[in-house]
Design a protein that fits this description.
The chain has 71 residues and is mainly alpha-helical. Helices cover 79% and strands 0% of the residues. The chain has a domain at 27-71.
Length: 71
Amino acid sequence: MGLPLPQSCRPLSFPGTRSWWRVFRGYHWLALTDGLIWGGLLLRTRNLSSTITAHAVEVIMVYSTLRIFYA
C-alpha cells in the first residue's frame, strides 16, 4: 500500500516558471527536508499536535534568524 508513483514523486519535482525557480530553488531543499522530518515525527509519535507545534517553532526560529541577518 502506498501512494501511486506520480504522487510519491511529486515533492521531488519543482514546478513553476523560470523566474520562480530562480527565486525559490534555494528553499526547495529546506521544504523537502522539513517534509521528511515532520512526516517522520508524525509517524513516530502518532500525534499531529506535536508535529504542528514543532513546525511552528521551527518557522519562528528560521524567520527570526533571517530577519536578524537580512534586516
